[in-house]
Design brief:
Helix content is 42%, strand content 8%. It is mainly α and 428 residues long. The protein has a single domain, classed as Alpha/alpha barrel (Glycosyltransferase), CATH 1.50.10. Helix 11 packs antiparallel against helix 12 and helix 11 packs parallel to helix 13. The two termini are 20 Å apart.
Amino acid sequence: MELCAQLKPHVGERGVLTKGDYEYLEGLTKDALEKARLYPGGTGNNHTKGILIRPGGDYPSFWIRDYAMSLESGLIGKEEQEHMLKLTASTQCDQTWITAGGSMVPYGAIADHIRPDDGMPIYFPGTYSYQEQGNGTWGKAPPYDDQFYFIHMGTYFVKNYKNKEILQGEIKGIKLIDRMEIAFNVPPSHQDNGIVYTTDGFRGVDFGFRDAEQITGDLSFPSILKYRASNELAELFNLLGDKKKADRYRSIGEKIQMALPRIFADERGMLRASTGKSHQADVWGTALAVYFGVLRGKDLETACKTLADAYKKGVVAYKGNIRHIFTTDDFNGSTAWEMSESAKNTYQNGAYWGTPTGWVCYAISKVDNPSAGKLAAEYISDLRETDFRKGKGYGGPYECFYPPEYKQNPVYLATVSCPYGVFKSMRE
């Protein structure tokens, strides 16, 4: 089965946005994207000789994952994509090294973010300093998700522009397709089932949208990303005429798909974030697994019903934005995740985010389309209320918020680009 068929959302459902709301979201996404662009030679101190796309808000650099998660919006041009793809490839770690803080950057690692002023890669969250990165607070290894997002960047470019030749092009003496394979093998994974894992002693961040949390053991979110990446590599090698490698990567994807519900599903069908610390049910990961087509049959139905029930009970969403964890699943009264660098109900530790709203709407729509439509309408209503284009005092889309007053990072791109990409796919 081709990747486009295998990973395309199961769109028997009706689109959950009205025409007017969809067009509003499209316009807001375009304008937030323009605010996120750093033009070379402009006020953003971009000297990389091409456009960079920031996450928005107060983030000054080019973040790989945020950009890759915005690609499905279809609003990023060919030249922009090619520049950011090649820049990311050129900063891939070419020699394993140990930071001054005692963390390791392994050969093949993809940067967490890249500075626009000098194009230097920063492999760890929490800093913009090449010399001071990797102090252990944000893991002893770079986050595990960026490697798989890099593969998605390359695959998306090849598929959209029918340009398989770029895969054979060399970047600093190494073919792009080879760099993608090297990246695929960076995150530590079990040999028998391909599941990504980490340890307390040498922890890596599972997913950068919760890099302030300590999550250990077998990890579901990067394994879901690895599932997609394995199928993407399988398709790329099919394009290149290498059936052996295509079969190999397809087999890895099948093993991950079989292992995910067996290892991570709780009694409600939700996928837990991990098997170690912070092993609570992961709303974002479960919804993404539905959207990617990882969950099938009874596993799929159960997970979708649980998400729909959680929405109707008011334990997962507020004004159309989504928590990482059900409010009923908080670790205790002091923290949502078991271990966090953030106070409860701030940032990644219990605040509400728009980034996963599309995934959750999609999952709920499989069992309860009216509820999915209601959630989507609430999301759009909040965006209309806070829309930065209304002038001073308005900053929506925000990165995250919590009532009544906590808000973080205005004009945050993924809050609109990621859901827009999902809603767009549901209309096609």
